[in-house]
Each structure stands twice: as structure tokens, then as C-alpha cells.
């Protein structure tokens, strides 16, 4: 699984009457950011202060990430991080849902409503696979340390997308939600520390491809700014987002009414 696959699996919350995708309005931007993180950690790109630079055009193992890499390499001029995130396609969450379906992590029923729009009902989710993912997340959140680079990136992006309640629900999850917020806060690139980042793209590239701390701070800082932009001036983050793909509509995610969706 890519970091994006894991983010979506975390966001899928089983329930007695329906399975929802939490924080779907924020999720697609976090998915887009996760692709950059994976490519950065694979040494294929560097995310600088002014642009995203392709360092190595060789395909990676995952076909989607290779496609993203090709798009970045073909862009002229090279895109900036904020512009790249703002151009996140509305269909990205649905595309990742199809990926999870291909990996047999979920079962999905698709149908058309009276307006001809395609709806998606999540019928089941592979609970053992999701629990294994939560166990990895716990190792980072509860230790308060970076752990593996991939797990740190997952934890920070999940916090940015407000997926902590999906990972740690209810009253019993309060402590872990606080730990997750604290972990993300230590990796936030604040205005006060922005000047400490080297200006030269080469130095930034080196830092971002070798250090999880610098990578997560850079990506989280820009992602958080993007979320803030969408909540400025009285407009909610869900403004102008495509909510028609899910059977319930809106940011609540998908819905399935019935039983037999606790797992495989």
C-alpha cells in the first residue's frame, strides 16, 4: 500500500448501520500530498520552497505514483507545491477507493441515482488489515518519536486531514488523539522557523529526501495553509467540493444501510 491507500483505509470507519469515510472534504488534499511524500522518500522528487523538482524520472513500483511522477516531469514550468495541491482532482478519493477495492481491502457497490450520478456504497472493510495499520500508527503516536519515516508521514498527514477521531474514536481515544496532535505539532513548519530552511533548492532537496522531519514539516505546513485558505472569509472547506459521489452526499462519506459489513 502507498501512504495514500493507508490514509483512506484509516478514514473508512465501520459502524453498525453504515460505513463512512471520515473528513472526506479534507482527505483528497491529504491524498495528493501523500503522493508527493512517497515520491520524495523514493528519491524521485524534491519539494522546494518555490517548486517541485523531479530528480529521477525512472518509474517507481506503484503505477499511480509513476503516473504522478510523469505528470510532474512534463509540467512546464515546474509546479509549486501550493499550486499542485490546489489542482487536486475532485475524483481523487474515489480513485483511491477503487485502489482499495482492487487490493480487496474493501467491497464497494456502485449505482446511479435518478440524476444519473454514480454513487458508491462501501459494503465491507477488511478489519484485520485496518487494525494492523492502526497498530503501526500506535507505535508512532504513543511513543512520541518518529519511528519509521513512512509511519511518521502517515501519522502527520492523518492528523492534518482530521482523521484522529477515525483512528481513536470516542472517550477512550481522547489521550491518543491528543498525542497525535502533539506529534503533528512538533513537525509543523511555523512562520517563526521558516527562515531556518535553506533557500537553495539543492540544499532543500537534500534535506527533504533524507530527513523525515524536514519532509513532514514542509508538506504539513503547506497543507495546513491550504486548509486555512478554504476556511477564510466564512467559506467552509467543503465549498465547491464534489459531494455527489457518495450515497449520503456531503462530507460524511459513503453509506450502506444494512448488516454484514463488519469485515470479510
Question: Could you explain the architecture of this structure?
Answer:
This protein has a two-stranded antiparallel sheet. A two-stranded antiparallel sheet has the order 3-4. A two-stranded antiparallel sheet has the order 5-6. It has twelve helices and six strands. The two termini are 19 Å apart. With 264 residues, the protein is mainly alpha-helical.
Q: Based on Cα principal axes, name the global outline.
A: globular
Main beta sheet strand tally, sense and closure: 2 strands, antiparallel
Please tell me how large the radius of gyration is: 18 Å
List the helices and strands in order: HEEHEEHHHEEHHHHHHH
Q: What is the overall pLDDT average?
A: 77
Helix content: 40-55%
User: Beta-strand percentage?
Assistant: 5-15%
Cα distance spanning the termini: 19 Å
Number of helices: 12
Give the helix/strand class: mainly alpha
Physical arrangement of strands within the biggest beta sheet: 1-2
Number of strands: 6
Low-confidence segments, given as residue ranges, are 188-212, 233-264
Amino acid at each position: 500500500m502507498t501512504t495514500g491507500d493507508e490514509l483512506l483505509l484509516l478514514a473508512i470507519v465501520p459502524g453498525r448501520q453504515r460505513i463512512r469515510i471520515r473528513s472526506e472534504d479534507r482527505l483528497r488534499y491529504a491524498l495528493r500530498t501523500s503522493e508527493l511524500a512517497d515520491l520524495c522518500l523514493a528519491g524521485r522528487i524534491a519539494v522546494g520552497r518555490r517548486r517541485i523538482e523531479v530528480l529521477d524520472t525512472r518509474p517507481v513500483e506503484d503505477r499511480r505514483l509513476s503516473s504522478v511522477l510523469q505528470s510532474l516531469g512534463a509540467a512546464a514550468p515546474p509546479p509549486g507545491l501550493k499550486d499542485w495541491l490546489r489542482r487536486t482532482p475532485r475524483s481523487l478519493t474515489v480513485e483511491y477507493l477503487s485502489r482499495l477495492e482492487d487490493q480487496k481491502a474493501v467491497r464497494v457497490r456502485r449505482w446511479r441515482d435518478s440524476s444519473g450520478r454514480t454513487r458508491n456504497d462501501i459494503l465491507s472493510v477488511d478489519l484485520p488489515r485496518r487494525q494492523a495499520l492502526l497498530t503501526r500508527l500506535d507505535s508512532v503516536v504513543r511513543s512520541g518519536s518518529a519511528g519509521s519515516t513512512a509511519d511518521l508521514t502517515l501519522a502527520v498527514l492523518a492528523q492534518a486531514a482530521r482523521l484522529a477521531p477515525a483512528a481513536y474514536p470516542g472517550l477512550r481515544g481522547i489521550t491518543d488523539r491528543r498525542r497525535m496532535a502533539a506529534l503533528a505539532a512538533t513537525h509543523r513548519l511555523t512562520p517563526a522557523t521558516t527562515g531556518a530552511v535553506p533557500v537553495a533548492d539543492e540544499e532543500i532537496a537534500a534535506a527533504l529526501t533524507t530527513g523525515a522531519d524536514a519532509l513532514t514539516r514542509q508538506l504539513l505546513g503547506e497543507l495546513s495553509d491550504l486548509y486555512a485558505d478554504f476556511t477564510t472569509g466564512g467559506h467552509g472547506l467543503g465549498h465547491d467540493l464534489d459531494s455527489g459521489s457518495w450515497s449520503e452526499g456531503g462530507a460524511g462519506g459513503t453509506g450502506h444501510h444494512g448488516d454484514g459489513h463488519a469485515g470479510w
